[in-house]
Design goal:
The protein has helices at about 15-30, 50-55, 90, 110-120, 140-145, 175-180, 200-205, 215-230, 235-245, 250-260, 270-275, 280, 305-315, 330-335, 350-355, 360-375, and strands spanning about 1-5, 35-40, 60-65, 70-80, 80-85, 125-130, 150, 170, 185-190, 265, 290-295, 320-325, 340-345. The protein has about 375 residues and is α/β, with parallel strands linked by helices. The radius of gyration is 21 Å and the shape is elongated. It comes from Rudaeicoccus suwonensis. This is Glycerate kinase. InterPro entries: Glyc_kinase_flavodox-like_fold, Glycerate_kinase, Glycerate_kinase_RE-like, Glycerate_kinase_sf.
Length: about 375
């Protein structure tokens, strides 16, 4: 029996590689001789680089600027001329000081620095996962790291973060175009929000990053000014005007918008990662696929890992079960998406805190239960 464990992280609890390892331990304990393939995955957010490394990419250390300016030791993944970069580990929300937030000043510079490092190391295709952003700066910091000049009326550099965009007067992207002249940029993101408006980057996502209503208003005005200056900039104006309303421009606090300005192609995060991991090949000859993430809920239906894996497994005619810290979808909904059964850590743990703090033993029990149930069904 060949089992593929294509699982995402349990956010705030356990990385994907550990989830897969615990499930595998329980499975092989239940039945010796199993062929278990551990394939940690991600959906474009935190863990995307780890998923690429698990699939055979080389991890390359890189030093970047964190969201509040502190030095961050991160990495990107490289295979041949393709690199994989993630915003979350270079300048993401998880890198803010403990208990702190910086909705007005957090910058996306770090992800631009990682992209630049990959290009300078020879990458000619760069996949950028945009999940987990701490900033709402329209991708200005990312652009600056890639060689853009963003100046105020006096010719000085604008301040970091979304608030700094309020002073922007002139933009020159020629340095970015020089750097990326022969580079294909692919954005892995599932966000469909535009840059501005009631569904835009500031209105929807800035409150999750600590912004109060007045700060959301200021950020919206700053992003509007940023887009207006770009729309009036020779050589980029028409693209900038169209990009404002693009479904995905609001990703990562507007980094999606900045990526569009420099010619990036957008693809669903889970589809990109599953291709990086070559899931279609891994599924060949498999008898069962186990997928999962921390909370399997309505959001999971919007391009998250379990549904993406289930879709690929259906194409390969391989049955699928899902594992989560908690399962909030009913059996009928799961079945509609090709998932036969569901197993939740919270159903075994004595309380929610324990299930989050130490899910390992319960995942091992779930792994054993999956194999037991397959043998007796």
């Amino acid at each position: 029996m060949r089992v593929v464990l294509a699982v995402d992280k349990f956010k705030g609890s356990m990385p994907a590689s550990a989830v897969a390892r615990h499930l595998a331990t329980g499975m092989t304990r239940e039945r010796s001789g199993l062929d278990v393939v551990e394939l940690p995955i991600a959906d474009g957010g935190d863990g995307t680089v780890d998923a690429a490394v698990a699939a055979g990419y080389r991890r390359v250390p890189v030093t970047t600027t964190g969201p509040t300016g502190a030095v961050v030791s991160a990495s990107y993944a490289m295979l041949g001329a393709r690199a994989v970069v993630e915003l979350a580990s270079t300048c993401g929300l998880q890198l803010l000081p403990a208990g702190g937030s910086a909705p007005m000043t957090a910058s996306s510079r770090g992800v631009g620095e990682a992209i630049r490092a990959a290009v300078e190391a020879g990458a000619r295709e760069v996949v950028v996962g945009l999940g987990g952003s701490a900033s709402t700066d329209g991708g200005a910091g990312m652009l600056q790291a890639l060689g853009a000049a963003l100046h105020d009326e006096d010719g000085g550099d604008i301040a970091p973060g979304g608030a700094g965009l309020a002073a922007i007067a002139r933009i020159d992207l020629s340095g970015v175009h020089d750097l990326l002249r022969d580079v294909r940029l692919i954005v892995a993101s599932d966000v469909s929000n535009p840059l501005l408006g009631d569904d835009g980057a500031a209105a929807i996502y800035a409150p999750q990053k600590g912004a109060d209503p007045e700060q959301v208003r200021v950020l919206e005005l700053a992003l509007t000014r940023f887009s207006n200056v770009l729309a009036a900039t020779a050589g980029i104006g028409e693209i900038a005007s169209q990009a404002v309303t693009f479904a995905g421009a609001g990703a990562a606090g507007g980094c999606g918008y900045a990526a569009l300005l420099i010619g990036a192609a957008f693809r669903p995060g889970i589809d990109v990662v599953l291709e990086l991991c070559d899931l279609a090949t891994v599924l060949d000859g498999a008898d069962l696929v186990v997928t999962g993430e921390g909370s399997v809920d309505r959001q999971s239906l919007n391009g998250k890992a379990p549904i993406g894996v289930a879709r690929a497994a259906a194409t390969a005619h391989v049955p699928v079960v899902v594992v989560g810290g908690r399962i909030e979808l009913d059996h009928e909904t799961l079945a509609e998406h090709g998932i036969q059964a569901a197993y939740a850590v919270i159903d075994l743990a004595p309380d929610a805190e324990t299930s989050m703090r130490d899910p390992g033993p319960y995942l091992e029990r779930i792994g054993a239960a999956i194999i037991h149930d397959r043998r007796t069904s």
